[in-house]
Amino acid sequence: MSTPPHRAIENLIATYAELVDDGDFEGVGSLLADATFTGGAGSVSGADAIERMLRDSLIVYDDGTPRTKHITTNLAIEVDEEAGTAVSRSYFTALQALPDLPLQPIVSGRYQDRFERRDRQWRFVQRRVRTDLVGDVSRHLRQGGP
Q: What is the DSSP letter of 58?
């Protein structure tokens, strides 16, 4: 039995958060291999460029992670089954904690995503990140990060 389109897209969005929080930037690049990622620092496309952008902009700690948890909420998905396309919008909040930094929200905003079904699989084709609120990102973003 195949996964319904809405659930497949929810799974892609959840997988993105898990991969970033695990520090698996190669995995994020693979997940977004067919996509353009647009954020505060501009746009990049393709697996290698997206992986490099994350490695260049996010601080990774001794455990191999950025010590974050991305929470995605207010998810709305619209699927055009006939065209094999979908769009979604959602909110995100990133939490961070370190031994000398109490658990706190560090940034929140919105994702606007586009998806296409190719070879019977749903894939990201665009992820736009709009940051609305910023807290202390000094322990999350490298100098000059997005």
A: B
Q: What span, in angstroms and rounded, lies between the C-alpha atoms of 68 and 106? A: 9
Cβ contact 93:46 at 8 Å = no
The residues near 108 (Cβ < 8 Å, ≥ 6 apart) are 91, 92, 93, 94, 131, 132, 133
| pTM of the complete model | 0.94
Residue-by-residue pLDDT tens, the chain, 146 positions: 588 999 999 999 999 999 999 999 999 999 999 999 999 889 999 999 999 999 999 999 999 999 999 999 999 999 999 999 999 999 999 999 999 999 999 999 999 999 999 999 999 999 999 999 999 999 999 975 44
